[in-house]
Design brief:
The structure is a single chain. The chain has 399 residues and is mostly beta strands. Helix content is 2%, strand content 63%. The N terminus is likely disordered.
Length: 399
Amino acid sequence: MHKKGSVLSYRVAAICLGVTVCGLSQAAALGTYSVSPTDSDDRIVPGFYPNVELDLGYNDNLLLTETNKQSSLVAYLKPELQWVGVIRKHLIRFGYQGEYANVFDQSSENYRDHFLGADITLDLTPKFTMNAGANYRKEHEVRGTAGALNIGTRPNQWDQSSVEVEAIYGRRIATAQIAAKYEYYNRDFTNNAQSTRDYDANIFTFAAYYNLGPKTQLLIEPSFSDYEYVNSAQDNTVRKLLAGVTWTATAKTTGKLKIGRYSKDFDSAAFADSSGASADIEVVWEPKTYSTVVLKISRDVNDSSLAGSSSYESSIASLDWNHDLTDLTQLQLGAAYSVDDYDITRKDKFIDGYIGISRSVTRNLTLGVRYDYGQRKSSLAGNDYKNNLVMVGVKTTFD
């Protein structure tokens, strides 16, 4: 289950206008548990935390196409419910997040995305911790994005169930710590004759940390992933070996740097094997208590749904800045550059950016406005696009 790397006050989180208004992507990103309530000492506060957000936007290129662009007003409703419980030293969470979109001028693009999840952290002994989680997703693929085919009268839709179990021995403050994690995913496409893309995935990850000092850790992270498709010719395994460092250089800067190699091997000779560099880098800089800059760089391999292609390498660099202009007003800026390099003669380059301002009108009510820009340049003719999205929104929290 995806979790935030840091724990934010739910009142602070309310300043951010949710999945679409605060995220770099215009697509749904459910299951992030953006509301993580704490008290001033960063201890979990048990309770029930609901909120709801309503956004109205104008999108000038709904289908992300080069020609025959279609535009429309779009209304988004995003409810979120979360319950947090603490039993002795153990943490339990249940949550639901939804994103419901109504496209005024093209109802076929309406969607209802859902995420339902639960996780538990068991603090069993001073040296041994276990995490477990399960979730269910019912979501759609945004047309024109990597892996999504512009077919059918409606966007591709899929259901996914997953479970995750992790065992951790040792504390980060100790000389060494080891962690082993298992993840299982089952994804089924439900329309547009996409069932050949259905798959089961089993992912095993091992991580070992060694402290060089109170603020720096070396790490090594091997992993093995096995993907089994309805079309067995697409079955493949991915092996990765990453190594790097995590650090807290000062009270203002933290980060992780993991680099290494991957190899992707298909069971069928009809699909091309691949190997290359892999990376996962994140640096968080807080020059002031009211300002945060986040730099992320990643490189990974993904299965491809394009005809004649088995996989593509995705390289992404993004920079986000959240800055409190006043106690009640926050500025959000971000930009990203990414490249999808397919194993056929196709390479897509993406430029994305956003700027937004939100203001807390009352303790439980926040208003915001935001502009998003997206662009793709493809080496394959007819696949370029430009997209502009302007949004206004309101979010309310209940406590």
